[in-house]
Design goal:
The protein is an alpha+beta fold. The protein contains nine helices and 19 strands.
């Protein structure tokens, strides 16, 4: 795909005792007993996910805190990718009050992003971040849970019924973690500690987290793209985006976000700016998230409002063409914005026979603006006029720029102060 951006352009973990250094062929201390981690450490350092110390060491034997681990996997999911800047902004606003007492410092944006994505829940915050828990070392069984969730495989892991692991310390793995441990073991992302044990309660070390990150990154392979929807076909689960000719399919598992909420695909409209999160394997590319970050009006229509109806959650307005007198029905988005006299109100506040402007995204109304009985627009430029009785203007004020207005049968035209004809 032309515009897909790698998910793994990420900055180093911001820990007060760690300062990013340029990636090298190797760190001076990733050898000997830690030679097994060398290629993974270098991989993650090159991608910018992890960093070393100013003395050129990586210190692979140091434990990783819960806050560091969650932050790293949030960035693997794109929390610090430029494409997700607006998404992270929504997440921060959504969870700012929830997170303020946990004092997560550098990791707050990352944790907010994980909450937004559903990787962790508000109920789990105390478990991982209350008091000193955030700075305590993450045990290996918690890492297994985090990795599984970061791979969006929690349901798959949960569906495993026959769990058979060869570890001699299976009984020490917490019951709620066994399916996750089994999953990451089967995927080859985690393995035993070399003594036929999984060692579920042993702290994860910096060398090990590099291995886990690298293998998860290569398995999930997340990419991100900011683009605009050109067309949407919910029946076929297809979207068409700017600068890409073919249709892109999504599935029932694709999660769609709008204004901090999970919504149905009926909310996808042409003209919307979206952030697409892809997960790519050797044989498949999946759209796993669609974030609607902006909806633009692609067309406008000035009409005389007649009324509205609502059926099955679908709002429909009835309006009359002021020139022809024909009446038509227009389907509205569930989140259509109704503005009356500059104030956002409910549709039932719009009065019949009022002039309104309908703003469309594709074929769906996303804005209804009720015009006052007397409205003067100065310094407009006429950019279009049709024999059917409609004019289009441009204006420095965005409220009017590009608007189309219909004029009634008894309109008065003047030019240079004198009465003029339409021609």
């Amino acid at each position: 795909m032309k515009k897909i951006i790698s998910a793994l352009i990420a900055v180093a973990t911001a820990v007060s005792t760690m300062v990013p250094v340029m990636a090298k062929d190797t760190f001076s201390d990733v050898n000997g007993n830690y030679a097994w981690a060398k290629e993974y450490v270098e991989d993650m350092a090159e991608r910018g996910l992890i960093s070393g110390y100013t003395d050129g060491t990586y210190r692979p034997g140091i434990d990783v805190s819960r806050m560091d681990a969650f932050s790293l996997f949030a960035r693997l999911l794109g929390s610090n990718n430029e494409a997700n800047e607006e998404v992270v902004g929504v997440a921060k606003k959504e969870y700012e009050s929830v997170l303020k007492d946990y004092k997560l410092t550098y990791a707050e944006d990352d944790i907010a992003f994980l909450l937004y994505r559903g990787i962790i829940t508000e109920k789990e915050l105390d478990k991982y971040f209350a008091g000193t828990k955030k700075t305590e070392a993450m045990p290996r069984y918690e890492a297994a849970i985090l990795i599984t969730k970061a791979m969006l495989a929690e349901d798959e892991a949960g569906n495993e019924v026959l769990i058979d692991m060869d570890y001699t310390d299976v009984s020490e793995i917490p019951k709620e973690a066994k399916q996750y441990v089994y999953y990451v073991t089967q995927k080859g992302i985690m393995s035993g500690t070399g003594d036929e044990k999984f060692s579920p309660n042993t702290p994860v070390q910096r060398g090990q987290i590099a291995v886990m990150l690298s293998k998860t990154a290569n398995s999930a392979n997340y990419y991100f793209e900011v683009t605009k929807l050109e067309d949407v076909d919910p029946d076929a689960n297809n979207i068409k985006i700017s600068d890409y000719d073919a249709e892109i399919g999504y599935s029932k598992d694709t999660v769609i976000f709008k204004d901090g909420e999970i919504v149905e695909d009926s909310e996808l409209l042409p003209g919307q700016t979206v952030v697409l999160t892809y997960s790519e394997s050797d044989s498949d590319v999946r759209v796993v998230y669609i974030d609607i970050v902006a909806t633009e009006v692609t067309d406008t229509l000035a009409v005389i409002y007649k009324g509205y109806s609502s059926s099955g959650g679908t709002l429909t307005v009835s309006a009359e063409d002021p020139v022809t007198g024909d009446t038509a029905q227009y389907e509205c988005s569930p989140n259509a914005i109704i503005t009356i006299g500059g104030e956002v109100l409910n549709i039932n506040k719009v009065k019949a026979a009022e002039y309104v402007t309908l703003g469309f995204a594709g074929d769906v109304v996303i804005e209804i603006t009720s015009l006052s009985k007397t409205q003067t627009i100065r310094n407009a430029k006429l950019t279009g006029i049709s024999p059917e009785g409609k004019i289009t203007i441009s204006h420095e004020d965005k409220e009017y720029d590009g608007m189309t207005y219909a004029f009634s049968r008894d309109v008065n035209f003047t030019k240079d102060g004198d009465v003029a004809e339409f021609s």
